[in-house]
Every structure is written in structure tokens, then in C-alpha cells.
């Protein structure tokens, strides 16, 4: 892997690994913005960051015998769509799972999520443009690949989604060329990345250069032998080897919430808390907070939420007069189906999909 041409990285991030570059913002800064500014968007890389020239950028679509090369201009000629969607790494909150028992992976805290506005062409329009029809979708997959760089575990980065998801009218899968109203930065996969709202970041391939319609999922390492929730009995990489192929690739992340800030005023006994919640198969309907170890809950106020795929920001003003045994405030998200975020979360070897109640000491 060649790291000689990395762009300058944001100095507001806490660096978790240098090569490849992995970094996250402090969660207290993150929740200060409804739409995450680029300098506070976490960086998750399995290889070097590449810088490409927009004007000469092309990508290919392979469908059976047929191959089509498209330019960014071709893509921009298709209808433009804008969505707000939370990009979240499956390893968000990994350090908390690591307290149950050590896990394998970058030591992420709870800032590995970014709520951004993505603009691009709908994948279904792009596929229709090259003659892939929505009637031939059964059990087919859309494989995304970036051959831009070597990665730690494979010679390219890849992922896939079912073809019927690409054609779904509600899933909003995009090939994005802008973020927050600006051309997509190199660090974010510019000039072109995949945006799969509601699905873990690992599928959002950056520097997208190849799409293959296939009867199988992407054979890439990051689709097949990573980003899966293995059972708690699988305790190390060796034990995982025969099991990867038996477990499904992760799709939606679990319903989640995090307490980002807790400010206690000793004099008047007030406690101000603020955090985020992220949706899963259903949207976030509300967040409740508790200062008595989950015995009673008070609803927090949702201060921001935008459409189906954004995060929810929330805050609450509590009164914590009197002596509390545990100076901990918990958060618990609720979805539109009445599902509640759970108190505990099963351990898994890779430390992915941690989603136990959010909490903070005050
Ligand atoms: N080409 C490429 N795409 C990639 C990755 C990568 O390493 N290479 N990492 C994936 C993972 S695991 C995540 S969480 C997101 C992170 O996107 P970001 O760096 O813009 O935050 O990109 C995904 N797309
Ligand atoms: Mo990720």
C-alpha cells in the first residue's frame, strides 16, 4: 500500500490509526451540528486515500456480456437526487463492547457516525440507463468495487447489495458526487461513492470505479469475511475461518442512541443531556432518558430529524436533586414500531453493531 499521496486530514479528529488513516471526532462536537460538517466526518479506510481528477473520471458497469463506461458527466445528466442520511461504521462504539471482552478492530469510541446531505443519481436510474431492467432482479446482486488502491486484506475494496434493493422505490440508493452541497471530497471517496441509506458504512464504496451485476454477492473480503455478526462462542480469528461463509453479511445497523454531553449543575441540581440516535429497519420515534438505572424514563426532546435516513438529535433537562447512588444517565431509543433499544448487547469477536443503551457519567 502506498501512502505517499494522502490529502491533508482534518485536525479536529482524534486519530485512531495513521496508515490507513482512521479518525473520529469528539462526540460532544459531533452533536453540535444537525448536518455534520466535513471536518467532523469520521474517516474509515482499509487502504490509502486516493485523489482523482473529476473531469477524466470514468466508471464501468458490467451486466453479463455487456459492459458500459460512463463519465461523471453522463451520471450528472441523470436526474439529481438529494437525501440526508447517516453514514455509520459498524464498529461505532466498539470500545464499549471491548469492555465485555477484548475485540478485534480499530478502537472506536462513539463518534463514528456522520449525518450528511448526499447528492447524486439514483442507482436504479443508472442501471436502467445501461439496460438493466427491474424485472430480472430476482436473486441478483449489484457488486460495487474500487480498484483505486490495495487494501489491508484484499487487492481492491468491494461490497454488494441485492439488485431488488437497488430498484426499490423507497431505499434511495445513490451514486453520490456531492456531499453537503460541495463536490464530494477525495477523503469521502470523491469523485464518486455509493450511498446506501440505513445500511452500515462498509457498503458505501468510495472511489467507485466498477459495478457488476452478478448472481452472487461481492466476493470481496469486506463482504465475505468481515462485517458479519458472529456468535459469541467464536472468540478469535482462527475459530472464525470456517464460519464466515455461514453467516449473513450485515445490512441495517441496530437501533442505537448515545449520550454525548451531560452537564450537571450542583447548585440547582439540573442535568442537561444531549445525544444522537440512529435508525434501523424503522425510523427513530423517540429517545427516553433515565437517571435511576432504567427504572423510570423521561422523554427527551428531538431537536432534529430529517426524513427516513437521518439521525435524530435529542436533548433533555432533568432534575437530579437529592443524592443519587449512580451518577449515570442512560438513553434508550424507540422506533416507529415500538421496538426499544436494549440494555445489553451480545459480544462478537469483531466488535460490530454495539447498541446497548447509551450512557454517560455526570
Ligand atoms: N474504497 C473504499 N471504500 C470504503 C472503505 C474503504 O476502506 N475503501 N471503507 C468503508 C467503511 S468500513 C466505511 S465505515 C465507510 C467510511 O466512509 P468515510 O471514510 O467517508 O467516513 O466507507 C466505506 N467505503
Ligand atoms: Mo466501517
Automatic annotation (TrEMBL):
Pfam families for this protein: Mo-co_dimer (PF03404), Oxidored_molyb (PF00174)
Cofactor(s) annotated in UniProt: Mo-molybdopterin
Superkingdom of origin: Eukaryota
Domain Moybdenum cofactor oxidoreductase dimerisation: 250-357
Keywords linked to the UniProt accession: Metal-binding, Molybdenum, Oxidoreductase
Record keyword Metal-binding present: yes
GO molecular function: heme binding; molybdenum ion binding; molybdopterin cofactor binding; sulfite oxidase activity
Record has Metal-binding as a keyword: yes
GO cellular component: mitochondrion
SUPFAM superfamilies: E set domains, Oxidoreductase molybdopterin-binding domain
A Gene Ontology biological process term: sulfur compound metabolic process
Residues in Oxidoreductase molybdopterin-binding domain copies: 46-222
Designated name of the protein: Molybdopterin binding oxidoreductase
Amino acid at each position: 500500500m502506498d501512502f505517499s499521496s494522502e490529502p491533508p486530514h482534518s485536525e479536529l479528529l482524534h486519530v485512531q490509526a495513521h496508515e490507513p488513516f482512521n479518525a473520529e471526532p469528539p462526540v460532544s462536537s459531533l452533536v453540535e451540528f444537525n448536518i455534520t460538517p466535513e471536518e467532523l466526518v469520521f474517516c474509515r479506510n482499509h487502504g490509502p486515500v486516493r485523489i482523482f481528477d473529476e473531469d477524466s473520471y470514468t466508471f464501468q458497469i458490467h451486466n453479463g456480456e455487456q459492459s458500459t463506461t460512463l463519465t461523471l458527466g453522463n451520471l450528472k445528466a441523470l436526474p439529481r437526487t438529494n437525501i440526508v442520511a447517516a453514514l455509520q461504521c459498524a464498529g461505532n462504539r466498539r470500545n464499549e463492547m471491548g469492555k465485555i471482552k477484548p475485540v478485534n478492530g480499530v478502537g472506536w469510541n462513539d463518534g463514528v457516525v456522520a449525518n450528511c446531505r448526499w447528492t447524486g443519481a439514483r442507482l436504479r436510474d443508472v442501471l436502467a440507463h445501461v439496460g438493466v431492467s427491474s424485472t430480472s432482479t430476482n436473486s441478483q446482486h449489484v457488486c460495487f468495487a474500487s480498484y483505486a488502491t490495495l487494501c489491508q486484506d484484499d487487492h481492491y475494496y468491494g461490497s454488494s447489495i441485492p439488485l431488488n434493493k437497488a430498484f426499490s422505490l423507497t431505499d434511495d440508493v445513490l451514486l453520490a458526487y456531492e456531499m453537503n452541497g460541495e463536490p464530494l471530497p477525495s477523503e469521502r471517496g470523491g469523485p464518486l461513492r455509493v450511498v446506501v441509506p440505513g445500511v452500515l458504512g462498509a457498503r458505501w464504496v468510495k472511489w467507485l470505479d466498477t459495478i457488476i451485476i452478478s448472481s452472487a454477492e461481492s466476493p470481496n473480503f469486506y463482504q465475505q469475511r468481515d462485517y458479519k455478526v458472529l456468535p459469541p462462542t467464536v472468540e478469535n480469528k482462527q475459530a472464525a475461518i470456517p464460519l464466515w461463509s455461514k453467516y449473513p453479511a450485515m445490512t441495517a445497523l441496530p437501533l442505537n442512541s448515545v449520550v454525548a454531553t451531560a452537564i450537571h449543575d450542583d447548585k440547582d441540581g439540573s442535568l442537561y443531556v444531549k445525544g444522537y440516535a440512529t435508525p434501523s429497519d424503522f425510523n427513530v420515534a423517540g429517545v427516553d432518558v433515565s437517571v435511576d438505572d432504567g427504572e423510570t424514563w423521561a422523554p427527551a426532546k428531538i431537536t432534529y430529524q430529517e426524513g427516513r435516513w437521518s439521525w435524530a438529535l435529542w436533548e433533555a433537562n432533568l432534575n437530579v436533586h437529592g443524592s443519587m447512588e449512580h451518577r449515570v444517565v442512560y438513553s434508550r431509543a424507540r422506533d416507529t414500531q415500538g421496538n426499544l433499544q436494549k440494555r445489553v448487547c451480545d459480544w462478537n469477536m469483531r466488535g460490530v453493531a454495539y447498541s446497548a443503551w447509551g450512557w454517560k457519567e455526570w
